[in-house]
Amino acid sequence: MKTKFFQNCLGVFQGGGCRGAAYVGAYKQSIELGISFSELVGASAGSIIAVLIGAGATPNQLEKIIKELNFNSFLIEPQKKDFYQNLGLKKIILKILRNRKIHYFVKVLEYLGVHSSEKIELWIENKLQTILSIHNRPILFKDLIIPTTVTATNLENSDIQIWGTEQTPDFRISKAVRASCSIPLFFQPLENKYVDGGLLSNLPAFIFNTRPETHYNKVLAYCLIADFEKTKVTDIFKYSNLLANTIVDGAKNIQTSLQGNIYQINISTNQIKATDFDKMNEDVVAKLIKNGEDAVKHFIQDEYSLLHDHHSKINTCKTPTDTNNVLVESVENKLKKVIISGCNTKWVYELFPSLLSWTLNNAEIKFYLRKNNDDPEHGDYRQRLLKAMGVDVIYKEEIVANTFLFNPDSESIGGALVEPASKENFDCVKYTSPNDSIAIKALASAVDQESIFNGFKYKPQLSVVDENELFQSMKNVTQYATSNVKMSIKKVNIRDIFFLTQHVKGYKLRQINSIVTLYKSDDISLFVPTKLSYKNNKYTLVGIPVIEEINNKLFVIEGNTRLYYCFKNNIHEVYVLFLQNVVAPLPSNGSFKIDQMLLTDSDLRGTQRYTKFHYKHFRAIEKSIRDPKTCLK
Predict the structure, then answer these.
(1) Distance of CA 599 to CAs 379, 416, 440, 574, Å?
(2) Domain 312-447 grouped into CATH 3.40.50.300
(3) Residue 430: beta bridge partners?
(4) Spatial contact of 571 and 563, defined as CB atoms under 8 Å apart
(5) What are the backbone angles phi and psi of residue 243, rounded to the nearest 5°?
(6) pTM for the full predicted model
(7) What pLDDT is recorded for position 141?
(8) Higher per-residue confidence, 114 vs 86
């Protein structure tokens, strides 16, 4: 079982004191079920987990770190403060009041906290240096692999304090984490002003709300739920403990209701509270880790219903990428009828794997296309491709709307995406709730004016082709046209290659499974040269990953998404088109290993996606193997 919808998330880790050990199991199960994080945010104990994941810690590393941790080692004596020295009360209070509970209060009074949080800072610094193999200086936010944000509370200005890869790249991570973990009264405030991030926001998913676009597709919040017994306040000791725990836990429900757009994984921590450091033995830690695993497993098992309920509350897609994500997710509905109306065929390239999935499910597909309005270079080929795949292409002088309709006759799993007249505020309106069924049917009635389906049920068929046919097509790429360029089909290990960009587009990744399914169903190795066959002995070559060997390093030119998909699904070796003796410069000087790769659902292109991108060195591979002027003619 793998997630179908949560491949690219902003991972938000709520505070929870020592209970944060449960996040180890949650992270382990998240990775196993295909959840990835393109950005991370943490408050309090959640900040510890967030920065360790951001540094690239594997689930096994994280589990080892937490299991070896002596939680009581964090509870060191408070550091001396001059805060109350001028009051003249210190000696009198300490002499008269010897009771432990009163002494607890005196510590708070004198030192602003019962314990110093210095040990947390030293510990997290050591762990980050080990994970990142940087030992000669403090670890900064810019050193992290996954962009990460840590929040604390600034008492001086009564506001949230934010440190992160984007906001403060040169700030020391360990200091930020220490501040975020400084539970008021329990730990001393850092520099007399920074305390627990949970004081003002224990679920800081709001950090990027003002961004026009984000790398992540969904916000996944990991929350800790304790089975608290009602405790009466009978003395200052209980009062301060309850206050500290309430600060960490109390505002989460309010924050969730105010922020919205959050999918929440609730992890039970049984009777363990945020400040129960003295109860954290081996058995308790193991139980918390198990609870984290179970919570994620149950969440993913129920993800479709959770997603459907969530979609019904949000009725717009802000960006074209948001729209593409909803279209891609429609594949999971096992569609039987798809109606499309539009001015052009631009969507065909971006959503081709989804189109394949619709045909694999025997969907009846109609496309109402406005006459004489398509792209002059690619439009005719895309129309030929649609017809070859059984799509009923119907030409109209005018169209009712730019829209996608899915199972419009269904009361429960119907849906529609409609483009507005102006895209100033959003990209499309979304209808996915059962309550929208009347509107969906009305729209379908207006758009689908041809009652007879004149297409056919196309069954995609993949077969192996002679590698020389692929080589011949690749010679049409300007940079590969010389006789010195050597081509071969070679199996490579994904860990041995370098990517020119750090980002893989999320909506593209979500479609790759349909391509891999075709290879597997025909028992074909990934990714040997193949073709996709249509009627009348026509076919198109299927592109495969392309790698150039430059100075004994292997660079991915084409196929980032497929290689990332394979790695995430524990497929570490695949066949690629291997090129040697290419003298043309690479289109980018980026150099990223697979462990550094991140998903993005923002519309990054050209120089935004590639470091020092030079379009003149771009390899026009797609056009060379499927020339729109001649393909399928």
Answers:
(1) 30, 26, 32, 21
(2) no
(3) 417
(4) no
(5) -65, -45
(6) 0.84
(7) 98
(8) 114
